[in-house]
Amino acid sequence: GTRSMLNTNFEKEELEGHRTLYIGVHVPLGRRSHRRHRHHGHRHRKRSKERDSTADDGRESPSHTDTPAQRVQFLLGTEDGDEEHIPHALFTELDEICLREGEDAEWKETARWLKFEEDVEDGGERWSKPYVATLSLHSLFELRSCIMNGTVMLDMRANSLEEIADMVLDQHEVSGSVGQDARKKIREALLKQHHHQNHKKLANRIPIVRSFADIGKKQSEPHSMDKNVNGFYHTPKYLPDNTPPKSASPRKTFFSGVAWPRCVCCVSCPSTPPSPSSSSRSHGHMAADTGFGVASTKLLLWFLSVSQIDLHFMKKIPPGAEASNVLVGELEFLDRPVVAFIRLAPAVLLNGLAEVPITTRFLFILLGPLGKGPQYHEIGRSIATLMTDEIFHDVAYKAKDRNDLVAGIDEFLDQVTVLPPGEWDPSIRIEPPKNVPSQEKRKIPPVPNGVTDLGESEEHGGHGGPELQRTGRIFGGLLLDIKRKAPHYLSDYTDAISLQCLASFLFLYCACMSPVITFGGLLGEATEGRVSAIESLFGASMTGIAYSLFAGQPLTILGSTGPVLVFEKILFKFCKEYGLSYLSLRACIGLWTAFFCLLLVATDASSLVCYITRFTEEAFAALICIIFIYEALEKLLHLGHHYPINKNNDLQKLTQYWCMCTEPRDPSNETLQYWEERNITSSQVNWTMLEVKECEMFHGDFVGTACSPHGPYIPDVLFWCVVLFFSTVFMSAFLKEFKTSRYFPTKVRGIISDFAVFITILTMVFVDYALGIPSPKLQVPNKFKPTRDDRGWLINPVGPNPWWTTIITFIPALLCTILIFMDQQITAVIINRKEHKLKKGCGYHLDLFVVGVMLGVCSVMGLPWFVAATVLSISHVNSLKLESECSAPGEQPKFLGIREQRFTGLMIFTLMGCSVFMTSMLKFIPMPVLYGVFLYMGASSLRGIQFFDRLRLFSMPAKHQPDFIYLRHVPLRKVHLFTIVQLSCLILLWVIKTSKAAIVFPMMVLALVFIRKLLDLMFTKRELSWLDDLMPEWKKKKLEDAQEEVQE
Predict the structure, then answer these.
(1) How many CB atoms lie within 10 A of CB 67?
(2) Per the structure, how many domains does the chain have?
(3) Is 188 within the bounds of a domain?
(4) Looking at the structure, do residues 775 and 629 belong to the same domain, yes or no?
(5) Residue 31 domain-assigned?
(6) CB under 8 Å to 199, separation ≥6 — which residues?
(7) How does pLDDT run across 961-980, given as a tens digit for each residue?
(8) Which residues partner with 651 through β-bridges?
(9) 22: which strand partners?
(10) How does the protein associate with the membrane (predicted)?
(11) What angle is formed at CA 614 by the lines to CA 898 and CA 1021, rounded to 5 degrees?
């Protein structure tokens, strides 16, 4: 039908007198690449210009009294049943032209939108940084007038830009707004060549390909090909066998997610499409040609078209995206604007129109007289920004007439924020925000009580899922865990095909090696070598491999714990005092503990984990993180005992410094026994000629101004260790955050961030080796055999001990069971938090089953016991975080979840078992570097713990406190009281863990659950729901903000 034309001629005085108000546009939420819609079948029917007054779902259509928001909500709530109206992601491009008589003009790309605006800078050589579009209120009202009074053509069927131009000009000619002469000139202007910004950037690749194309063109001329090769229209049928070159993957072409036929562009689009006859004629000649010319020409011209496409930018466009082209400009011969809004059905690939080879769905054309270029530019920016708005974008797809589009603009205007012109500089480009608000509330009508029904889509964090429901059957929970995990078992290995997994494996291998060897060394000192470093390596490797293969949550990393070491010390001392065999008694306790763990699995005792709330979880996690940090610093300071320094050094007396070994003045009983065992006397030893190690071996004394009681002063080593330690910490943190820096391409930054810790370790090892300072190195056993010759790899549970010890040992085994259960399940709760977005489910019962079985195996083999290590597991999860790759320029990558797989854990512990054969390489790793890794892991694991956020509130005035969601609902004094209780529990845990009473540490962790229950007497349920609820902070805040905005 005929559309009325825009007829608004603004005078210069009116424009100059108009006060421009800039508005901050609400940033649209990132779109998903695919939407799910219910289809009632694809209907092929002629679209009438007037739609039925009732919707397909039976609801009444909106009346004239409805607000724009209500009309939009009604429109978006209807099911069209037509695939052509299913919204897709949009790429919007703004092209401008200025045509004067006698000048050869072209359309030039000046801006583009995928989510945020990017402009071609004034120099014309580069794109600007993405920024939030700011629009003048006047341009939005002018755009509204354009839609109201201009030509609106919905569901146009056209196959080329020529057809679109003819149909638009037909409408204008019928209305009398465009004459014959003007029509011809407007058509010529619309069909002018489009020059895109990426053509300059990629121009250096074009001449090479074009030269080969010319060779092929010359060879093909004798075969009666059309001499106008520039007009050759390349479509998929001209490629051999209608397929791309063999080098392209069948699933993924040069352009990620774009179907193959849409990836082929013509080299130079003709003014008119070739006729079918000429096309078939040309095709016949091509088929007949068997030489180099035609086939090579087709292939090379295809590569020429590909060479003009910015492949890097193509990766940022979601699969299935469509184009929206905005064409604005000034034409000298026009005396009034020509406006048209067009929606194509179906979308069509208009070669050369858009910067990227995707189909075009929308076109907005605004051509007007000279002198109003900036005005047209702002209107073009307004429609382009509207097309990136999530709501108007959907309205544009589903609109049935002009009024729907106007309602969409009005609804958009209802949401914008006006900034006074005297208080803000409109030339300032607003940086894209890290988080954008959800626009769902704009789609959903308010319920009668005035509060938006956001549904139950927001999941609460925590661990209250079906995995922890009691089944009432023996091993019922275990069987359900196996059924839940079995379908994902193969994908647990295929999903590990990623550089990220390699980086995680290398990082955690280095991080796990040191504590395992250190724990083994301490255990060897406590048990006189009965269980030492080699047993610790073997036990960790065997248990870790079994856990990675069969556990329900393979992201958990097993390690040794402090309370286990304390238990081993107490047990060894008891056996020594009463003359019992330590390894046999330990085997009995381990077997009983394994039995109790299996009993807990059989009775679905893991379901009790649901009583572990944030209060207990954060206290335990914070304690382990603090212990990691404390022990890393303690080990660094302890190096001062082995590498003493002269604190009162007089540089003028350096020539007088000396140190020598002398006979001990008062030999101890241990020294005398040592001499007696080796049948030597002090007079037989030439003390002054002994080296440092020999002097220490013979228990000699160091004498001299360059000596300390522990040995000679060692220059540089301690200070070099401090440099290595802190360099490791800061370099690891810096490289881990490198992903968000502005240097290097995105992929390079991602790789550096993933390999941050491994790169740091390699760098520190190289620097340490280059300087040659004798810093302490990682010591790994170089022979695979038990530490003591009087024991083997299998231990008799009874051995020389009385038979009744096999029964009485169930008492200490109960304490061990509590320790294993609490350590394992609290760590599992932290790993399985819903904010980690794990998709393959968890397996509390299966985890405990594997740990229990392997604990029994290690007990019989005389190996240490291993259970879930909290900090190592958190570091493992953090190293496998997935973020969106296809993100619009300026958009922050979205957290997608964790790369759930078994490969990293399996490889960590496999390589750990092979470390005995790699001592020649591992001996170069300085221990201070590993201590630095411990400090980094402990500090990085503290992130996100609400307890530390609340601790900082004690030193902040109220006006400077962050906008935490719980501060909105809980009085500050109650927040402080809750923090004090939690801090008191943390201090008590610390005191117990670092004292001789560490054996009762698991009982104290269990007591935290009951202390949390007592808090019900001090706080209301509402207060505890904000302070201790497991719903993530950001979700609660997002829900409340949405509800407040709706109520306003």
Answers:
(1) 13
(2) 4
(3) yes
(4) yes
(5) no
(6) 308
(7) 777 777 878 888 888 898 89
(8) none
(9) 136, 419
(10) Multi-pass membrane protein
(11) 130
